[in-house]
Design a protein that fits this description.
Arc Repressor Mutant, subunit A; DNA-binding; 3 strands; WH-like_DNA-bd_sf; transcription; single chain; about 10% strand; mainly alpha; HTH_HxlR; Winged helix-turn-helix transcriptional regulator; 5 helices
Length: about 120
């Protein structure tokens, strides 16, 4: 029996795109991608760049982003350990879109505040 691949539809409950959407709309993944848009960073550098993120959440989110093919983790096999993170081409695309969205949010803050005051 041959199965036909599902047509991508983020509104369909079983569509794999839901997992990507869940990751990209999580609390920390967009911020990590925006940081990595600026180059290759070590774990501690990423953590210092994002206010409020714990080591545990950074490690978990980086692992998820690596698993989704958006971030490349390079272990240099040195002692003490040196591990770098950088965006893959897919991660660059996601980071570009997220940066545009973040810019729109920041530029629109006065409008959000005004709308909330009504």
């Amino acid at each position: 029996m041959t199965t036909t691949p599902m047509t991508p539809d983020v509104l369909a409950a079983q569509c794999p795109s839901r997992e990507v959407l869940r990751l990209l709309t999580s609390r920390w993944a967009p911020l990590i991608l925006i940081v990595l848009k600026n180059g290759t960073f070590r774990f501690a550098e990423i953590r210092r760049s994002i206010g409020g993120i714990s080591e545990r959440m950074l490690a978990e989110t980086l692992s998820n982003l690596c698993g989704a093919g958006m971030v490349l983790r390079t272990d240099h096999g040195e002692i003490p350990p040196r591990v770098d993170y950088r965006l893959t081409p897919l991660g660059v695309e996601a980071a570009d879109r997220l940066r545009e969205f973040a810019d729109w949010i920041e530029q629109s803050l006065p409008r959000f505040a005004e709308a909330g005051a009504d």
